[in-house]
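Late entry, written up from scratch paper. The run itself happened at the end of the previous shift, but nothing got recorded in the book at the time, so transcribing now.
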Amino acid sequence: MAELRPQAMIFVTEYIKNGNNATQAAIAAGYSEKTASSQGSRLLKSVEVQQFLNKTEQNLNRDLRQMFTEDAVKAYGVLKEIMDDPLAAHKDRLVAARDLLDRAGYKPVEQIVADVKTSFEDQLRELIE
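Output as recorded:
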């Protein structure tokens, strides 16, 4: 991968930070407000910028996954403590147990009941009237 200019690196960082707005990222990177839209578009078409953007996003996702994994372990510990605490209110113990089961993939299947017959009859009446 070719070395990116610092301004292009700043553009990528700002592009990620602002939710993928190339014009605003170009302005934040120091490009003129008049040409920011075209500069942002041009930068996003660059293979080097795309590679740097993909690599930066991959690294960010990896770091976030690592942080959330650590937090998930802590959260599990808190829920387990509450669930196992005989002095905790029964309601709190049940909520903790349900939350643990939900997050482990044992959430009960939600059922949705639709009254299709009534809806169809209503629509039919509307057509006739």
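The helical segments are 6-17, 22-28, 36-45, 47-84, 90-106, 116-128.
(Scratch paper discarded after transcription.)
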